[in-house]
Amino acid sequence: MLTIGQLAAFAGVTARAVRHYHQIGLLPEPARDASGYRRYGAKAAVSLIKIRTLANAGVPLSEIGQMLEADGSTFDEAIQRIDSHLRDEIERLESSRKQITQLTAGESLALPPEVTSYLDRLREIGVSERMVEAERDGWILVVARWPERIHQIMPAKFAHLDDPRLVRLYRLGSELLDSDAGDDDPRLEEAADILAGLAEQAYTPGETNPDEDAQHELPFGLLDALAVESDPRAQRLLDLMRERGWASWTRTRPQRLTEPAD
Amino acid sequence: MLTIGQLAAFAGVTARAVRHYHQIGLLPEPARDASGYRRYGAKAAVSLIKIRTLANAGVPLSEIGQMLEADGSTFDEAIQRIDSHLRDEIERLESSRKQITQLTAGESLALPPEVTSYLDRLREIGVSERMVEAERDGWILVVARWPERIHQIMPAKFAHLDDPRLVRLYRLGSELLDSDAGDDDPRLEEAADILAGLAEQAYTPGETNPDEDAQHELPFGLLDALAVESDPRAQRLLDLMRERGWASWTRTRPQRLTEPAD
DNA sequence: ATGGGGGGTTGACGCAGCGTCAAGGTCAAG
DNA sequence: CTTGACCTTGACGCTGCGTCAACCCCCCAT
């Protein structure tokens, strides 16, 4: 007769595991000897090995009991279920691995390569590191809401960098972020003028903008909030844009709040 | 300002998950509004998305905090650790899948194919189902203790089936298991005679048996116990073997207990 | 006889990452 | 005013054991 430790060693598990199987009713409690020790026979060893075989194959303990009692077809069904579950798990982990190898740099965190290229391009243009980080956080929000559309958006963004006004705008932002200029800095006005001009151009009045619905889904509110949270002076910029008839400095649609409603 | 539900929805998680991140200090608790609701800004959304990006990549929550603060090389090291851990997990599951697909029939449970073939062969010879099951459980114990050696053992076992004495022995076992014969059934004596003869042949006296140490490691005690547990009449067989000078009906070494010690 | 070391016993908490009640308070709409 | 959808804290549940704690038991050496 074996003690719990001997039984466990024979099956290659710990005594704690055996006691656990008793607790959940997977392995019947054996009789005790005079001093209260559990004493196991050979059949218990066989049962324990069967249990471990299934458990090692990835069968949850809660199902092993039924499987050991099941007949051939029921058993095979269960095997199928377990196997497809394992397949799913493996797929999940595989995709995790793919994802994680993308995360070599802290920057690519949560961003597709197009966007990180764009950010690198900004650096080449002379945009400061703080400005790039602010831009990056904004893109994280956009990507989170619109993961697929990002492929359509980025080429336009790259092309837009050919516009000297936009470059000037980024440089203004860089300067302002790195300075301790106040709300009254004239560069804020200049930035607002550029933004208004770009917005005017992007918004072709009279025509139905096909992306209008889509744009409506973009998290403009969050982007504005992000800017203000990153630098309170962004609030001034927002006010200036509102003066110029634009609802937000990231949204390219005119507001009508100051005009009478239809 | 977002409520917890809105924030969670934006990042594609549940509110409970966000609260969990607060609890473990991964995401800072935001300020509350007048009615005690948590109110989140855009930066929280960015943080949450970063957290989920790493979590989706398989990074344990407990490490995400440090990773978000880490610099490039520290970050990359962590990535390497996580990746190799993922690889291990995947391998584990892959091997589980391999194992589980082997378990198509209830019989192959915990047994390599050589052994199941042997059991099938026994059925062909006319061994009863109960006898095969008893034999199977015995092999489960042997395989558990000696998983690699089984490849060496089985060919000899197959060859041994050419010996008509062994076949007769299995048939006797089948008959006895299916009958309600008592301890005094003469077939028990016949079985003991065959066993003794086979043992005599297997044990070549005077020569040093190279497998002696190895055999010593086989779980003979358990095998004997298993037989007796399966059918109490096996005890009688053991006694008969002892009378004939053998320690156990599964062990092929003579006992010297009845002779004076050296 | 005594002491020590290596077994055994039950009971309990801990782990990861939340899901899911319970028992309320709040908010916007009809 | 009610309803339904949200928020709050607190707590247990899940998986498969690991790991104390506090105590008992057996065998061996002194």
Automatic annotation (TrEMBL), chains A, B:
InterPro entries: DNA-bd_dom_put_sf (IPR009061), MerR-type_HTH_dom (IPR000551), MerR_fam (IPR047057)
Pfam families in UniProt: MerR (PF00376)
Taxonomic superkingdom: Bacteria
All residue ranges annotated as the HTH merR-type domain in the record: 1-70
Gene Ontology MF terms: DNA binding; DNA-binding transcription factor activity
Record's protein name: MerR family transcriptional regulator
Keywords in alphabetical order: DNA-binding
SMART domains: HTH_MERR (SM00422)
PANTHER family: HTH MERR-TYPE DOMAIN-CONTAINING PROTEIN, REDOX-CYCLING DRUG-SENSING TRANSCRIPTIONAL ACTIVATOR SOXR
